Amino acid sequence: xxxQRSRVDFGILGAGQLSLMLLEGAMTLGLxxxxxxxSQDDPALLTLSRGLVGRTRSVDDLSLFLxxxxxxxxxxxxxxVSLIRQAxxxxxxxxxxxxxxxxxEILQNKLNQKKILSHLKVLSSRYRVIKKTEIIEAIENKSxxxxxxxxxREFPNGYVIKWATLGxxxxxxxxxxxxxxxxxxxxxxxxxxxxxxxxxxxxxxxINFDCEIAVIAVRGVKGxxxxxxxxxxxxxxxxxxxxxxxxxPAPLLRQAKAIIEAILLELQYVGVxxxxxxxxxxxxxxxxxxxxxxxxGHFTQDFTLCSQFExxxxxxxxxxxxxxxxxxxxLDFVMVNLLGEKVATIAAPLAPPPFGRLxxxxxxxxxxxxxMGHVNVLVPRGQVKSEVVARTQRWWDNYCESL
Length: 403
Hints:
- The chain is an alpha+beta fold.
- Helix content is 33%, strand content 26%.
């Protein structure tokens, strides 16, 4: 049952690290939230001990949780909206949802994202849906040769294949490269898994980009908008490794601002929205939209006046939005993700690094590629950020080796 020793101002569907940090952001406002957790060991429930252990895909568990919170936030967009609507029909007074169920339902599908971007005349990579018959033929023949030859003709500069739903942190994404038997088997497995999960696939043109950026903004219930400083992200294998500021030209910043404001307005969106983009020849191409607080915005916990987590709560509960300005305008910063390097059972590191602030997610199991925490580090102007990243990585490597 939900532990309600004091009032609960809102609930969150999900209890991972994003929920944990949302609850921490709410505490700065004197607010208390509750979570629907899949496990007693989920970070938000394990750390703050206020919530319900249940299944987000159970109508009964959803109904119980939704009946005890006035407003509902989402840890991420990977929810079954139809089940949530069904659970609401069991309630005399359903809670408010932010972002709206309609916004979540639209944005959890990348093909819908493409349609919105096209409607708004926002640049994105050229794409097409992969026909079911093409996937079935590849699976039945145990060969993707015909499929890849067709894609190479359509996208001669390279292509990316994506699942329309369920993909994140490199999962649900396959990037073209040199052809060999191993790569062909990987692609065959990729489309087979999509077919098993009943997920649509699409293929898009690979953008030859100069850098990747993230634009994060928050919109309140009355339509007010605040935008965080645009940051550069470094990705590897589809997973963000580090985030840092960059001196972007003014025209590009105006592009970024116009894009995210147009998307927020089109969807009448409430809360934090992240837009992941490619920059190529001073043009922004939107890659994906994330209807939630986002990994690329974790720097805001230590380097802006109001974090993305606090501002998401502010927006969804009708508060005035907080200031998104940097707290250290004369210094640079870097956020480094701590990713699992092997399988092990762990507790928190014995000592945080002496050179930055550790945000630990309290996960009990280390897995390869799993986000375990992040470190925010202030960097004096002139110091090479890659040296700070390397130092942080060595500290983390040493810890992982000790397990």
